[in-house]
Amino acid sequence: MAGKFLIQDSLLRMRLLTAKQKEPYLLFYHLLGFYPRHIELYELALRHKSSSVRNDDGILLNNERLEFLGDAVLNLLVSDILFNQFKNQKEGFLSKTRAKIVRRESLNRIAAELGLNELIVTAQSLDTPHISIYGNALEALIGAIYTDQGYDRCKHFIEKKIISQFIDIQAVASSDVNYKSALLEWSQQHKADVTIQTDELANQGEKSFQFCARILLNGTLIGEGCGFSKKEAHQQAAKKAMEEIKKHPEMAGTFRESVSDNPEIESSHLI
Question: Domains of the chain: which residue ranges?
């Protein structure tokens, strides 16, 4: 498979030598790890609907169609990867693990880590775009790769550029702790006053978080966390709070049991 990609990339690199505008090809090469065949697909994948353009037929063009395709392709390819990696696991386990990987908070974070938030084309009036457009653009980019390069290259991109760099599949698959729920359960058992404070941050450019949370126990700060959503920020802060409680036996009490003895706790592992 690697040899097949090497031949394709060599041919595209030779074609690039005669191209008048090399910069867009080089940009996508650094982002993707290969040269596009039809660069217009990748440029379209980064065009938000607020900045739609009309083609010669008067049809508005933006990344929504590629996002639709990329969403389906991502689910298929992650299913393929999990199916082959966890050969003895049942359908429920595979579905649950896939859901953790492809959920919106994860895609928003990965898109920002890849730098897509700096490349998305939006209308000038959209000064503070909603964070979900990052994950949407990532799905559209996957749709563009699938359309331009096919299944194998798209799978290779997801394995090498997304999963290997940003996702620990084993950790995702094995984690079943909802830190916020466990913390609140502990506070009820011990009649402790737990307060969660959340701040929404102004847009600060590349890879900036959107929310930060603080957890106070009886008025004392015991955990802080930031994320691209309130839920993520709360979970990160609650995880830090759990760790702080475990360091102090006088606070911990039966905290470990409240987590380990409750298999019904819904998973909220953060990638």
Answer: 2-174, 179-260
